[in-house]
Structure formats: C-alpha cells, structure tokens
Automatic annotation (TrEMBL):
The lineage of its organism: Eukaryota, Viridiplantae, Streptophyta, Embryophyta, Tracheophyta. PROSITE patterns: HTH_MYB, MYB_LIKE. This is Myb-related protein. It comes from Sesamum angolense. Residues 10-62, 63-117 form the HTH myb-type domain. Residues 10-62, 63-113 form the Myb-like domain. SMART domains: SANT. GO terms for biological process: circadian rhythm; green leaf volatile biosynthetic process; regulation of phenylpropanoid metabolic process. Pfam families: Myb_DNA-binding.
Amino acid sequence: MDKKPCKSQDVEVRKGPWTMEEDLILMNYIANHGEGVWNSLARSAGLKRTGKSCRLRWLNYLRPDVRRGNITPEEQLLIMELHAKWGNRWSKIAKHLPGRTDNEIKNYWRTRIQKHIKQAENFTGQTADHQHHHHNNDQASTSQLSSCGPADHAVESYSPPSFNPNMEAFQGPFPTESNDNFWSMEDLWSMQLLN
DNA sequence: AACGGCAGCAACCGCCTTTCG
DNA sequence: ACGAAAGGCGGTTGCTGCCGT
C-alpha cells in the first residue's frame, strides 16, 4: 500500500534543476523577508521545494555575493594549502575563499585537482606507499595540465538572474584571451609537495 | 556526419550536529 | 533533561555539452 503521511495538502515536491521562475520567486521572497527558516520559507514563498533545496540554491547560486567563474591561481593555491591542512572540510575551506561555496570548491577539487593527483601518481611511480600523509587524502604532483583551460565553459545554460541588482558578483565569464591564466600548476604542485 | 566516451557542474541523499520546545 | 526538527556538511549521482574517433 502506499503509505501517505497525508499532510492534507500533500505538497508534490519538485526536484531537479531550478527554473528561472523558481529562482525569481526565491530571490524575491528572500529580498522581502530575509533568509532562514527554510522549510516555512519554502512554503510561504509558494515553492514546491524542500527547505533544504531552497537553502542550497540560495547559498550556492543565487546569493548576491556568490562568486562564480574561474578559480584564480591564487584561489587554487589556497585551496590546495587548506586541503592539505584540513582534508575534505569543504565548508571550512570555503570560509577562506570569499564568494566561493563549499560545493564549488568540492567540485573543483574532484574534477580538476584530484584527477591530476591520480595521474601524477601513475607518473611518479606511485605505488601504494605515500610516504607522506596517507591519512586523509593524497596529494602528489601533477602532470598533464594542457587541456585545462581555466575558463572553459564558465556559465552555460541559464545563467544566474541577470536582473540581480547586486550583480557585481556575477562576473562575465569570457575566457577569451584570459587564458594567460596558464597557471603554473607545476609550481603550485611543487609548493604543495613541500608540505 | 554520426556515435561514443569523457568532463564538469548542479542538485540530491543521508548522516551528523545544533537548536528549540 | 529529553526528543524532535532544522540546519549543515560531505559524498554521490544524473544531466548536459564537448571532443575525439
């Protein structure tokens, strides 16, 4: 049988990607009422989302001070340093990178850095014994960094609300020639290895 | 020109911690 | 002092677009 909590008004909870309309509703509501108390906020705003989903969307994407786009070499270095120090404490790391979210840093680490580490291991005669720390994660040096344009696709699909008044946060992507960001990853990795 | 595989990102899930009644 | 609810966090998944064959 289908057990139904039956909240009388059983809200069909929406999941998946947020639509522009939902974003608008959420932003507008928060602009007028402030953030927090997410469950009731979701209900009051008329969003068929869970409080968690609203919170996540706001914190990671809609908040005016969220900074999206290319991770700078400085930021990368900081991420690596802090990760070496704290491991996967993403939110803790994020606190030291203004405008960056834990989710973004986590994704960045996994998609970019961790991969390089793996390859580097295979390259430097990895074996299983990292004489360094092997409690947390493993860091090593890098190798292939050619294909990684820092800018890549930056923002795709529907970019954050362009009507956002505080749009200072949203820097236009435009990789274009900005890829003088050919970050000397070798240097960064080297520094990392010195730890 | 079409297909398959890969990479990157947004969002979800479940667990743990904190706060409130 | 205890229990319930909400918030916060990290891991994981699914989708989309890009690149190579």
